[in-house]
Batch of 4 targets.
Target 1
Amino acid sequence: MGIDTVVMEVSSQALMMHRTSGFVFDYGVFTNLSPDHIGENEHKDFEDYLHCKSLLFRQCRTGIINGDDEHADEILKDHTCDTEFFGLGEKNDIRAENIKLLKENGFIGVNFDVKGLMDFNTDTAFPGRFSVYNALCAIAVSRHFNVTEDDMRISLRQARVKGRIELIPVSPDFVLMIDYAHNAMALESLLKTLREYEPQRLVCLFGCGGNRSKLRRFEMGEVSGRLADLTIITSDNPRFEEPHAIMEDIETGIKKTDGKYIMIQDRKEAIAYSISHAKKGDVIVLAGKGHEDYQEIRGNKYPMDERELIKEITG
């Protein structure tokens, strides 16, 4: 078939159920860990979750580890592989120094120096300090495949992931991005990251899915009201609920704060409003839909890609 390399995500469930038993991976990667997938049909507790994650490093030849993560030592308990660490701390084999946040001509990202086993300066087209860790991880892996420093620099500047902090070039005067953040924790992390860039205004446009927890709506409204300068409440995937009722639940959360907001049910109209009212230096984030290219209404999925909507609005 001509395939010489396979990149595989190996979940804690896969390791727990021995679905990859018999594999010997050349490289195993650990980025970070926080409580997740804990419940009756997954892991009984965090300790079990962590233990299952650690099993990867008993069936790979080289472990590439985020040395700054508080669980790094536990992840490597009883490991049988060689180890290599990335991060910001001095102890790491590949580390970032002199981190600078970039904001220019509708672009936001990060610039930093790579030190240790490699030595060069690079940018990444993803905002926030957490993006530095992701870039270091990619660099650490690419080094083993003899990727040149020049190619690493070019790739980090040009890399895009659909719907994940995806910059949409519209104007040099403001930043417009699409992100999949669709719960309070993800939205808070995103908005705090964007706050570091000191925008003229931070504008957050989002809705919430129907036939899902109402608590999520209250929480997301409160988060956006607290962290954004302006929230545009709109429709997401209403499913079998009335869109305006969902928006009113979000409004309940935002009213717990002093945040300014406006409600525009039609998502295209809401996006058009965010663009036409943008001010120089604004950062605008369209949250919740991300990579999705549809809107689900009463059991039907209708085509709706925010990238296409933006083209129609600005074209």
Target 2
Amino acid sequence: MQYDAIILAGGQSASELKKIAPYDNEALIIIGHSPMISYVYQALRASQNIGRIVVSGPEKELRVILPQDPDLMFVEGGDNAMASFANAVEMLKEQQMSESLLILPTDIPFITTAAIDDFIAQSEQYQADFFYPVTSKDVNELKFPGVSRTYVKLQEGTFTGGNLFIIRSRVINQVMYMAQELVKRRKSPLAMARLFGMGLALRYIFKRLSIPAAEKRFAEVMGITGKALISGYAEVGVDVDKPSDLQLAQTYLTKTV
């Protein structure tokens, strides 16, 4: 089974990033010799699991950047990530959308085909509606020493959230609102826990929260089943949203291309 993939490329560059990379849209920021979005596209296109790719963002600029590809489509981005996602979904509905969608932001230039394929392979072992990767602090520090990330202490260890998702097409309509709230709060573990109730927040505060408990509450609140997948690839958990991240990307990716 091949997945349709959506790259969310409508995001405006953060003010701090614009001081050192003067681009209005973060997808256009040059890392090494390529725009940031090129790294995400290339990792997707090299995967045998990916069929069509929809890029939701400034179409005119992105068509010039990305290569000619019969399975690459463009749609204008929205005012926020969820609006951009909704625009891409509407386009795919006209094309007979795949049973599952892989969604990625444009600000994860470290992402690799191996990390994507591992995430997909793990997801196919379960029957959940929604999948979300997490990576341990040890994995991140080994790959990117000193990288600044928001970590959560759970019973199973200390983790940071990933930056890609898999969702079953059949449940998209019913979760649009809550998905927007999740995106807003993804940088704050406590805000995320509060979204799911005080009980979950207290467990988090007192370091008694477990992955199964979070998954159970997710299902109760969202009305769909979710599964957190522990990834051994630090690349899924490191994004570029501040100057130190961009400097890391310039150093690391310039060496590896």
Target 3
Amino acid sequence: MQSTRDIKKRIRSVKNISQITKAMEVVSATKMRKSQEFAIRARPFATASLELLNNLLLRTETLPPFLIPRPVKKTAVLVVTSDKGLAGAFNANVLRKAEAHIAGINIPYTLVTVGKKARDHFFLRNISIDRSFWGFGDYTKIQDTLPVADYLLNGFSSVAWDELYAVYTNFRSTLRQETVVKKILPATREGLEDAVRGILPERGRFAEGVSGESKFAAGYNFEYAFEPSSAEILESLIPQILRMHLHHIILESNASEHSARMVAMKNASESAGELITDLSLVYNKTRQAGITRELTEITAGSTSTA
């Protein structure tokens, strides 16, 4: 049986851990809300861009290369994880989904990772990584993610690969994150609309005013005169929307990471509280048993003396 001193040390240790997990829970909740705010700031630009895109597509028959499907000889897979741990099953779910997707690919593929966890996971398994990115921080701006987007878009433009899939965690609500595999390239108008629609979460204060109907139809029917041509504008506009889409994927993963860590730390704090209660009960029982034993010894000594 443990001594009361050992039990008190363990209770003190668990209390210290509980204070750390509670602090991490609060920090993660704050970072999660700020990550959502960063994503939402891009929505007005994204909505206006899609409205312009719809008008352009109605007035031109020439599509930019990013919208044109082609025979797939090689595919690219983007895997987005975090740089840090202590986020429950957040990274494990993404990596498991990525491995399942890669296992189903029957053609040559290129693997691109975002986050140290994905890089280390594939490196330890001797799976070749074409390019790895990390260190974007908690509040990533679009300038920070441009190297990722430009690398992927340039690879598609140069026919280094013919399609692009992203494996990441989609933020649905504070308590719900969904690991998804989404096709990014070649892009479709419906896919781009879905990406912008997903900027706002389904629930919470940031979800106010969102409905299932499309928000991207033009609110006017003017006849446009394009300068330069509509085809040239599309060639410039589509990459911008795709860069925003890839930036948003990283923000989604970032918000999901903080949400998962917040839930994990909350569960850890609750478990620590239950453990402290159990240890306190054991401490009291051990202490009482010690007192009873000492009283018995004193009584026995007095009886033998008499």
Target 4
Amino acid sequence: MTELIYGFDPLCGWCFGIVPAMRQVRADHPDIPIRLVMAGLFAEEGVRPYAQLSDFIRGAAPQLRQVTGREPSDAFFRLIARPGVMADSGPPCIAIAHVAGLAPDRALDFAHRVIEVHALEGRDLNKAETYAPLLAEVGLGPELPDIHDAELAEAVWAQGRRIGLRSFPTLAVLKDGAARVLPSEYDPERLSALVSKAVN
């Protein structure tokens, strides 16, 4: 069996940048399962007030725009300037894993919407109410497990950590038991072509 492993974190700027390319891959290769794997970019001692990262993110935004054509919005920067808004991968990863458990075929769409409402609309991913309209988009009710449950977050990240996922996004084609990591590519057509070459 061939599948595409997609190492993803909903707080990762480069994961935000690759969303259009991943949508192209999915459209071009509907027969290739995409397995979303998370490992917690901001976890445990790495969780911090988002405001501490603001200068770094602003400094990285021009390169992100140059490479991917995307950058965080003013609404995002207003959000992360607020006192008490935390950079914590746990809540969104738990929400995404919840959708993956109930509706696996809709998890990727949900994950992409989560990262987009954060980076483009400035929605706070630490609040359970942020997810209600996104859950409705994929046909699910607003109920979520406790998105601040640290043990649950660790369980969500276990697979990604077991395979040594440390860089986001990471794409690897798993074919006949062997994994081939793809080079970083954010152009939709070129990424789709890379996937085609790796699976054939």
